[in-house]
Amino acid sequence: MTRLIRSELLKLRTTNMWWIFLICSLAFTAIALLINTAQADSELHEPDYLHQDPPPGLSDQERDQFLADQQAERDRVAQARAAAGLAKSAANIYTSGQFFGLLMVTLLAILLITNEYYHQTATATFLATPKRTRVIFAKLITGAAVAVLFWFITTVIDLIVGAVFFANEGFSNSLGAWAAQQAILLNLLVYVLWAIFGIGIGVLLRSQLGATITAAVLYTVGTYASLIALALIHEYLIKKDWVMQTAVYIPPLASMHVIGTLSGQIGDVHLPPRWSGVLVLIGYAVVLGTIGTLITRKRDVT
Asked: Where are the chain's structural domains?
């Protein structure tokens, strides 16, 4: 198994694909950091109108509404500046770039499988190692190792930028808060699970182009199409909270839920605990990994 893993790592690092995907992941992380820090900045600072008196000429009702809006905004800012609010903002910043980072890891894992068929090296690989299950496990371990590398590099960048941001803002960086630590650690688990998804998809769809395009479209377009569909069903057909709660059964949305960012996508709906998203992702990973292994053991690679 050790030699198989070394072989897979050699195949990976002697091609350009790993660092191309890494560069893309870093670029998306930078964009996400800009967005998340800007959002946190707006949440932590009071807007100018809070320090203004009601405009002249307002009726008593309008004046009362103006003052009520000011008080509601002060409460919101105070909540954001509280320990729990800071930890939530920190968790969001420290996991910046997850959405597209997971896509890069998934596509890279897909290529670990589909490259064998594209370059017609699968036959030689399975002749050298007749026990195909061991080959799949080696690819799973390799994909997981690459996922850990991507997570580590992006997380270090997130932590540095996040710590600098909170220091400049004059607030705690919340690195000692369990909510932030949990988001970072669960993000690692999510990266590994999506690498397993990629291996499973690569086995099911052996075409390199077909597998990568299918995965990319389902992940990006499918995610937001699912959100729109659930919102429409909730608004016009079934006005129950459980409709929006089913979002945790959709893998990309389950990933968001694990790190606590799904609530910002579906509105004010009570969601199940974060570990439910972990269970959903593990379930998909086990199913895809098992199906992929069984198919590889029986499929004619020639």
From this structure: 2-33+94-298
